[in-house]
Specification:
Blueprint: H1 6-16, E1 23-25, H2 32-45, E2 47-52, H3 59-70, E3 73-78, E4 81-85
Parallel strand pairs: 1-2
Antiparallel strand pairs: 2-4, 3-4
Length: about 100
């Protein structure tokens, strides 16, 4: 997990604006399947949105748990949607230059 400056956060928020949530936390909560989907989505896209249809009151704690498990960085939580970022392993695969 990396620390983002406010300038980097703004840049990533702007980039995430038109993205649709790719992972949705529903009635089952944060399961191994959610962790797997977040990890796979971050590997493919670097920047994703996670929507909380359920557990809206616990979204901050659950997002922190997702970030810790998937080695992701929380960009921001807006409403019931969390924006997550994980830098690509290979330099040539990086879409966002931070």
């Amino acid at each position: 997990m990396i620390e983002l400056t406010s300038k980097q956060r703004k840049y990533l928020e702007k980039a995430a604006h038109d993205l649709q949530p790719v992972v949705i936390v529903g009635g089952a909560g944060v399961t191994e399947g959610v962790f797997g989907m977040v990890t796979a989505s971050l590997a493919a896209h670097e920047l994703i949105k996670v929507k909380f249809n359920e557990y809206k009151d616990e979204k901050v704690e659950l997002t922190n748990e997702i970030c810790a498990t998937c080695d992701a960085t929380l960009v921001r939580i807006i409403g019931n949607i969390a924006i997550l970022y994980k830098e690509a392993e290979k330099e040539e695969d990086r879409r966002f230059k931070l």
